[in-house]
Amino acid sequence: MAVPLPEQSMHGQWSSRWTFILAATGAAVGLGNIWKFPYLTGENGGSAFVLVYIVCVAALGIPLMMSEILLGRRGRSTPINSMCVLSAETKTSQWWQIIGWSGTVAGMLILSYYSVIGGWTLAYIFKSGMGTFSGASGEIAASTFSEFVGSPGTLFLWHTIFMVITMSIVAGGVQGGLEKAVQYLMPTLFFLLLVMVGYSMTTGFFGKGLAFLFTPDFSKLSGASMLTAMGQAFFSLSLGMGTIMIYGSYVPKGTSIASTSVAIALADTGVALLAGMAIFPIVFANGMEPGSGPGLIFQTLPVAFGNMTGGIAFGSLFFILLLVAAWTSSISLIEPLVTWLIETYGMSRITASLCSGLATWLLGLGTVFSFNIWKEVTLFDLNFFELLDFLTSNIMLPLGGILIAVFAGWLMKVELTKSELNIQNPTAYLIWQTLVRYIAPVAVFIVLLKSVGIL
Ligand code: PHE
Known about the structure:
This protein is mostly helical. The protein has helices at residues 17-28, 31-43, 47-75, 79-89, 98-129, 138-149, 152-172, 175-201, 206-214, 223-236, 243-249, 257-285, 296-307, 311-345, 349-370, 384-411, 414-421, 426-451. The protein has one domain (17-451): Orthogonal Bundle (Hydantoin permease).
């Protein structure tokens, strides 16, 4: 007789659907929305990229998020162990644990560079607070930034500080506290973004910014930029690596997975679009280059802070909130590895955090140096940071997502997914099923093949 699956994760349960939405949104909204989305949009020519991104969120992101929550809630453990339980339940190969493995590794790889950018955010709280940008022009902001990233020692220091703080939170097991704070801080960040959009409206270039973001120009769309847009959808929603699966494992039975997924995706995409609407008018008003890369927000936002009333306080507050958003995401990136070490080797939480943190920090040095002394050290034309980002966002997360879709769509029994998802409307269930069975796997493969020039 099959052993009944646990009703609850050994690590606990969310107190309500609302706490789950908050925590998952906290993990999803981070540097990906405010730092990465705008610079990728700029590098990939704007509107057509944005359109592909939105289509990917709706057609792949939401159904895959539902699948990932479903797997987590059914498996009730870390991604690796959940997949072990579920493959036994569905009588399929234990190889499906690969979803958990690849996700755990991807989380650590992503955190290694995420921490470096988190360090920039930390440094910019102080730069803004000390009035470095008062009255600054685009040129001054740009030169301040290139001087900053040009110094390996400075980046090393901020990366280290960011990592130490993140891992202390993880080691102390006080994520709950942070998540409670997020309840107030995230809406504040949202509000600050709205104020920034308001500032952008005064630059005289708001229309140009909007046109750049929303008037599709398909001539700018290449296979590579489609892949980047798809990878960004996975990255921003934290999909394909088990984070959402872990969060799903704490979801009480009876919570509507579909409406919850839609809410998270809407909040996440809303923040990214607002960031774009705040940044591009500033780019055009100051004659800057939209495609200037990872430094984009650090070169544009300071100009706005430097030229608005109360900009010093406003600027530091903005970077503080961005830092908090980065922390909640960082914690979710490393949590799979830490819990797995605890469950598998019986390590204490502190030892597990120390080991994971140290390895991630060390790997992060590669990213620190790729902005200065290793800038020219490339493989396939990508430096260390770019290679790591490409490998995780564009390859590992989409492939992980496909495996999750195939598992939920093909291997789990229809009655089971039907009852777990609890979708009353048969057409809605059919749409979900078609998306995870056919559309998601085929779309990801087409985009992957297109990006390497096979299609
Ligand atoms: N979604 C986060 C962001 O946009 C990054 C992240 C990716 C977090 C994958 C967890 C898992 O910043």
